[in-house]
């Protein structure tokens, strides 16, 4: 895809080791950023979190214009887009009485008042949504399917293939190569998870791995 | 790290420690040295937007609050505010000015209570026969008979009680302010919890526990009436146990490596901790909500053995269990507004009393028995009261219309003087005339009991300083406070 090719070029440019070393030194010397030595770390906003997860799972619908996507209460009382719509969050109906639960959890503006500035918060309820919600789990599954389909088969061994899939997941989620240290963690994680009994282990383990990437700080914050 | 061209505070040095040890030490230190954290770093800044426990402005009396919110307007002249003069003049025309909400059913015929009042306890507080269990705890409570919102509508007065300004939405509720000001005592449970009714949301819905212009971490966590009690609390079965532990352990490694390359970014550490908290919540919350292990005697006191009290009693008992585990603010709501007795008050009012009287009284008794009443403020009350005149015909269908001019609530524990009544309405119970208490006075008093000065608890939003009572006149009702 064009956007990913661009991201890859940007990534190659930014990953020049000297620049990284310099920026890390700057961050350490000026940790509260009084000298503006680095771009301040920012958490993705609510809409960005939803949209980028939809994008990675291959579902994001970028159709412009048209009427808003209606929102409705699901069986347990969460406000969700009608028919699991994958349109950009910008197009979700903003009803004062029905704030979309996922977006509200990540500090989308309250419609009852003026919002001159968003206040990003960090809470356990956000963690619970990221760990357990239907939205995240389903899209982690879709991302895993995409990773499986797009990783060239190169080995018959489960652990080798898992390592190749992980490397590919790193590339599309973090936009960078997996480090040897991380690859070792993934190997260890994979061997534990594969030894846990259960149906469909391969897709299940890859889904779990993809979920951890989607809910990790490196993914949720831009720097 | 030491090349920074200005003096660093202790907090920054600690925050700059990227290792896990630093994170733990930081949380510990801030918990212990809350005094550091209760002052924003710069003018115009908010307290740090997290849930770490913070010290109040001065020594508190209350550590937690349970509010039994009685939506609809409990009829004070039939429950907590005896009016012999009203009974004497029953059926005659009222000569005062009355504002009606339901004009087509309005009348000015005075309506004396159909129920008997009697003195109870050592203190002799008079309570109606509709509240026999509340009558049994009068020596532990303070009945305020002079509440006044000045507005007869439900929503307008509800919002006054929750957000500090009559009728205005989009403001943080009192629970949000307490959570913002004091943080959480519990590492494993939300600080502000709402127990919703099986019949659905109360009138005014989610505004009742909104954090308004504050971040959503300060809004009430709604405990649903049915399973799942807390949304997203449990992973699906295939992710539970060992699999989830492996997932979280990989996540923790990834996050800590990321933190190492971003020294000093405290938000990253906070988020690492929030995953630990979320995982702990999965077991703690489950355990806190399970009343099946409570002794039979306790279950009976709350009425769990009777159909009419089982549901509300269970929620009152859960409230005690939550407070016991460090939850700061628990509010129990009823579906819709069952106290809104416009018609058939003679049958409707006893029905809602039967559902709530026993559990509410049991809560006070039980907190006392557990040694928690001294530090737990209990509130019972609605947003308005009801008129002393008849709505509709003076027969079985008779009711009472809204009245925000004068009504009763009761408070117990948490530094409130026990066994007293405070304030008074006029001879027929229409308007508060003596020691009038507004929702803002109530809020200032509650904050005071928690050791917070309502003028100093400030949040910056929409370009100005915001306070719970929005800088209007409010007084701490000192007369009802227990002298320490």
Mind telling me the C-alpha Rg of chain A? 19 Å
**SSE order of chain A, one letter for each helix or strand:** HHEHEEHHHHHHHE
Which whole number gives the mean pLDDT of chain A?
87
Fraction in helix of chain B: 25-40%
Tally of individual helices of chain A: 10
Radius of gyration of chain B, taken over Cα atoms and rounded to an integer in Å: 24 Å
- The percentage of residues in β strands of chain B lies in 5-15%
| Form type of chain B | globular
Q: Low-confidence runs of chain B (pLDDT<50, min 5 residues)?
A: 1-5, 16-37
- The largest beta-sheet of chain A arranges its strands as 1-4
Secondary structure category of chain A = mainly alpha
Amount of beta strand of chain A: under 5%
Succession of helices and strands of chain B:
HHHEHHEEHEHHEEHHHHEHEEEEEEEHEE
Q: How many strands, which pairing sense, and closed or not: the largest β-sheet of chain A?
A: 2 strands, antiparallel
Care to count the β-strands of chain B? Answer: 16
Detailed description of the structure:
The complex is a heterodimer of chains A (223) and B (484). In chain A, 53% of the residues lie in helices and 4% in strands. The mean pLDDT of chain A is 87. Chain A is globular. In chain A, β2 (71-73) and β3 (79-81) form a beta hairpin. Chain A is mainly α. In chain A, α5 (124-132) packs across α6 (134-150). In chain A, the strands form 2 sheets. Chain A has a two-stranded antiparallel sheet. Chain B has 484 residues and is α/β, with parallel strands linked by helices. Helices cover 33% and strands 13% of the residues of chain B. An 8-stranded mixed β-sheet of chain B has the order 6-5-7-1-8-11-4-12, sandwiched between helices. The longest helix of chain B has 25 residues, at 345-369. The model of chain B is unreliable at 1-5 and 16-37 (pLDDT under 50). At the A-B interface, α2, α4, α5, α8 and α9 of A face α9 and α10 of B.
